[in-house]
Amino acid sequence: MDFEVYDTEYMSIIFVKDKLDYTGKEIEPLWAFKTFDVQKDNVVVFRGKMEVSAKNMKDLKDIKREKEIKVPIKSEDAINFVVEHFDAIDLKTIYLRQRLLVFIAKEVIESYNVKLKRDGDDLYFEDKKLSVCIACKGTVSAKIHLGINVKSKGAEHVKIVGLEDLGVKNVDEVMRKIAIKYAEEIDKIERDLRKTLPLI
C-alpha cells in the first residue's frame, strides 16, 4: 500500500495514496501500527468506499434502529479519517475530540463557499447527510472515525449528499487540510498543558 507519513510534534498523519475502503474494522485498536507501523497518536486519511455492517458498528442506538438493514453505513466514495489517541482519557474526552474534528471539517468545507449545518457529530447540507462519525474507547487507546461522502451514492435508507454535489472538486486538498488542522490543534493543546501553572 502506498502512503506517506507527516509528523507533527505529538501526532503522525498517514496519507494513504491508494484507494482503501472503510469497513469498521479500521477503528479497532492499533490498526495504524499493524498497517502502517506508526506508534504515535495518529490520524489515518484515505479515500474509498464505506461499507459497515451491523457487526462492525459501535453505535448501539444505530444498531438497534437499523437492525433490518444489511449494510447500515454505505457510501460509494468517501474520505475517511481514523484517529487514535493513546493518552489515558475517558470516553467523554474522546467525544470532545470527535466534536473538534467535526468542527474543523465543517470549517474547511465551508471555506469552499458551502454552508453546512452541524447536528451533534453529523454534518448536513440542507436536509441531506454529508458525514458519519463515531468515537469509542478500548483498553489500549481511544478512536474516532469520520467519513465524509464524496459522491451521493450508496445509502438507500437516508438522504445523502457528497462533496462533488457541493462543488468541492479538490478532495485531496480537503483531506489534507482537515487532518493537518486537527493535528495542529492537538499539538497546541499539548503545549498549553505544559505551560499552565496549577491552581493553589
Automatic annotation (TrEMBL):
The lineage of its organism: Archaea, Methanobacteriati, Methanobacteriota, Methanomada group, Methanococci. This is DUF366 domain-containing protein. It comes from the Archaea. It holds the Pfam family DUF366.
